Amino acid sequence: MMNSLQLANGGALAFADWALAKQSRIQQLLDLTLPSADLAPQTLHSAMRYSALGGGKRVRALLCYAASELCHGDEAMADAAACAVELIHAYSLVHDDMPCMDDDDLRRGKPSCHKQYDDATALLVGDALQSLAFDVLSRPLNAHQATLQVNILQVLARASGSLGMAGGQAIDLAAVGKPLTQAELESMHQLKTGALIQAAVLLGAASGSALELAAVRTFATNIGLAFQVVDDILDVESDTQILGKTAGKDANSNKPTYVTILGLALAKQHAQHLHANAINALSPFGNTALRLKELADFIMQRSF
Fold first, then answer.
1. Fewer CB near the last or first residue (10 Å), C or N of the chain?
2. What SS3 class is residue 196?
3. Residues 296 and 275: beta-carbon distance below 8 Å
């Protein structure tokens, strides 16, 4: 008899099994990509591995793989893109946790990089992980896809820089203690959180048609914002052990969030609205977009 946990949806792997397989794959790829801790400078390489291999749900890599499957992308390209986006994400977490940024001592259930090592090492870890991401994405993959490779390098660079993640962090730091409208908050998070999530989806879908790219861009924009709304809700409703980072940190730091602006009930409604928009964007593809829909559900189910 077919095991429902093993096979579903016409023989495809159930989401939990698919996600586990992809999480294992990206872990192995990162392990092979990161320099050995025995290679000089040993402390830097050890700290890079500590930060990039230490847990996490790998949501961005999963989004990349799911979008690639939807658009029938090249497997080697999907691997490189998923690896690169996880390295960028890991770098951003290391820098975000530093005392000059969000000043958090806990990440993924263990001491932040600057606490496990020191501030100078953490700064270099972030720099090195960012450089490694572009190294991975620029390595020769397929001579016939050189133009595509340049395009995805540009997508990731823009998503990571001052018009993306780094710019969003700058706006976030400047907004501490200041009232923001919902529109201003969403603009900030479209950069700080949403830009890299959108990039992950677009990197996976890079070989797709114009229709596919337009749809996944709309999907990614909405689910990226939903991800942040859920994070804000978790900061209020969850605890440090479950989160793997300090609960209540945003409120204690007097940072504007969806919960402080909308209230808890309306924040949950807004997350559901964004989730619905993301799912609706994929309606032209029917069941072929199943993995992206399941990931949207997964992002929502982290809290409610």
1. N
2. helix
3. yes
Q: Letter for the amino acid at 57?
A: K
3-state secondary structure of 12: strand
Distance CA 15, CA 218 (A): 22
- What's the token pair of residue 254? 């007097």
Alpha helices in 13-138, H assignment, sequence order: 15-33, 42-52, 59-70, 75-96, 113-116, 119-138
pLDDT in tens, 34-58: 999 999 999 999 999 999 997 789 9
Q: Is residue 1 part of a domain?
A: no
- The pLDDT assigned to 301 comes to 86
Judged against a pLDDT cut of 50, whether residue 8 lies above it is answered with no
In a domain, 7, yes or no: no
The CATH number of residue 27's host domain is 1.10.600.10
DSSP string covering 119-185:
HHHHHHHHHHHHHHHHHHHHS---GGGHHHHHHHHHHHHHHHSTTTHHHHHHHHHHTTTS---HHHH
In a domain, 60, yes or no: yes
Burial class, 210, CB count within 10 angstroms (exposed 0-12 / middle 13-18 / buried 19+): exposed
Q: Which range of residues forms the domain containing residue 154?
A: 13-300
Q: List, in sequence order, every residue forming a beta bridge with 8; answer none if it has no partner.
A: 12
Structure tokens at 144: 């016939």
Neighbours of 87 (CB within 10 A): 27
Of residues 245, 93, 235, 253, the one with CA closest to residue 176: 253
Question: Could you tell me if residue 8 is inside a domain?
Answer: no
11 — pLDDT class (breaks 50, 70, 90): low
Number of structural domains found in the chain: 1
Q: What share of the chain is helix, strand, coil (3-state, %, to 5)?
A: 70, 5, 25
Q: Are strands 106-107 and 12-13 parallel, antiparallel or unpaired?
A: unpaired
